[in-house]
Amino acid sequence: MEIMTDKANAAGTEDNIRPRLYEKIRELTEAAGRDLKACVVTFGCQMNERDSEKIRGTLRSAGYALTESEKEADLVIYNTCSVRENADVRVFGRLGYLHSLKDKKPALRIGLCGCMAQEERVREKIEKTYPFVDIMFGTHNISSLEGLLLKSLETGERAWDVRKEGSRIEEELPESRTYPFKSGVNITFGCNNFCTYCIVPYVRGREESRRAGDVLEEIRNLAAEGVTEVMLLGQNVNSYGDSEGMLTFPMLLKKVCEIDGIRRVRFMSSHPADLSDELIEVMGSEKKICPHIHLPVQSGSDRILKRMNRHYTKAHYIEITDKLRKAVPGIAITTDIIVGFPGETREDVDETIELVKRVRFDNAFTFVYSPRPGTPAADYPDQVPEDIVKKEFDRVLKCVQETARNEIKRHEGEVQEVLVEHLNEKDPSLVTGRLPDNTVVHFPGNESMIGQYLKVRLEKCEGFYYMGKREDDED
Question: Is 360 strand, coil or helix?
């Protein structure tokens, strides 16, 4: 089943959608005697977070007040992820909760977008089992939201727009950023790697790069608004290529570093098969580029890497990380690891543990293999039994935690620059920020420090974060 709606016809012609939507929300606001509230809940990756900022911005511009409470909201949108099965399960569970809210508040509008919306099996399930979902749109067409919402509000009918291709990259949308001083910036969409376990190429489509000029102009505008840290985002930023064939990813990084007002530059994620010596050289020479790289290895076994269609070997990965440590002293290297991939043996897991000890990751996001329908690995006959996977997962996790604690602890006693992000969630007498290498630091402070770069002494490593003290406090 392919459910598609022509954007221009979702609620009248494209030219008059926005004024009609704004007028409709104004009428509903007046009738309610209060602001209408919208809640956007994000599941998944940094790109989903960035998409949600645009969804929130679109809704705020239309007249909604933003809230983090689904219970208070008149419109709830779930921006979803399909990378692992537990993400699907969480979303379906939360939809059940929204159904109970809608029984009490029939005017509540419920929307679902993101990667799950791109999966045909999910759309079929929503169609049959969750008829109370009013709005659905995919990763390619966030700009359809205004028309879909207008149709839903005017007619009460379902308004869905999910396309696999044919939509241009939409970046000229309003946004409501989580932080005024830092922002993600999409530079690529989709993926061409087709790892055998991964659903991303099927739900986000083939890889497409934004024009370098558009990326740089967006970052200049962000800097003018007070943003000092940017993170360049893509499923595989290393394969970025300007549509005019002029810039590689390292060249784009250098251009970003030239922009006045930008103090920190990050990027995520990198694919080991495409990580070039040129990129390593730029990371070593450009001081604005943060000394951190997220480089998913997935497995330390060459046999499993080949079955995953990863296009590199364990030796090649180690060679890359050695070059990075030489070019960028003190660099933090983080990774993703999958345990329980079909056909994986204890000896394969031993290879992964050996790699973890050799590379000394600052952190590794370790996952149990999750078969995704529609991917080649889901049909492999040699799926690993759950009880075996759990034992091997525990072995890998223990090694990751031990090596990471030792690696992160290397900064204890140093004074480093911290970008303060927010008040500590558990103790309001503390603030929380990040080092250039992305390590989290908590130290005494107040709300006035948010967005500032402060010198902090890293007094005690608490595993994966530091407790610190502002250096000025010692005077």
Answer: coil
Same domain, 206 and 127: no
Tens-digit pLDDT profile for residues 297-315: 999 999 999 999 999 999 9
Adjacent-strand bridge partners of 232: 185, 267
247 with 373, same domain: the answer is yes
Decide if 170 is inside a domain.
no
What's CA 323's distance to the chain center, in Å? 27
Same domain for 65 and 137, yes or no, is: yes
Question: What are the backbone angles phi and psi of residue 287, rounded to the nearest 5°?
Answer: -70, -20
40-92 per-position pLDDT tens digit: 999 878 888 888 999 999 999 999 999 999 999 999 999 998 877 777 888 99
Query: In terms of domains, do 362 and 416 share one?
Result: no
In one-letter notation, the amino acid at residue 426 is: K
CATH number of the domain within which 288 lies: 3.80.30.20
Contact 320, 276 (CB under 8 A): no
Q: What is the pLDDT of residue 3?
A: 34
Q: Which of 62, 60, 65 is nearest to 23 (CA)?
A: 62
Alpha helical stretches, state H, 135-276: 145-155, 200-204, 212-224, 249-257
**Does one domain contain both 310 and 344?**
yes
Domain presence at residue 61: yes
What tokens appear for 183 in the block?
């922002």
- DSSP letter string, 153-170: HHH---EEE--SS-PPP-
189 beta partners: 208
Residues 395 and 437 in one domain: no
Question: Are residues 195 and 130 both part of a single domain?
Answer: no
Instruction: Give the count of alpha carbons within 13 A of 309, CB side only.
Output: 10
Q: Are residues 340 and 194 in the same domain?
A: yes
Burial 140-161, CB ≥16 within 10 A → b, else e: bbbbbbbbbbbbbbeeeebbbb
Q: Are 261 and 224 in contact (CB under 8 A)?
A: yes
The parent domain of residue 283 ranges over 182-408
Residues 6+ apart with CB under 8 A from 45: 81, 83
Q: Is the pLDDT of residue 463 over 90?
A: no
- Terminal CA-to-CA distance of the chain, rounded, Å? 68
State how far Cα 280 lies from the chain centre. 23
Q: What is the pTM of this model?
A: 0.86
- Which of 401, 271, 385, 403 is closest to 339 using CA atoms? 385
Q: How far is the C-alpha of 212 from the C-alpha of 255, rounded, in Å? A: 9
Over residues 327-370, the pLDDT tens digits come to 999 999 999 999 999 999 999 999 999 999 999 999 999 999 99
CB atoms closer than 10 angstroms to residue 238? 20
**Do the domain assignments include residue 2?**
no
Query: Tell me, what CATH number does 470's domain have?
Result: 2.40.50.140
Distance CA 340, CA 391 (A): 10
Whether residue 168 lies inside any domain: the answer is no
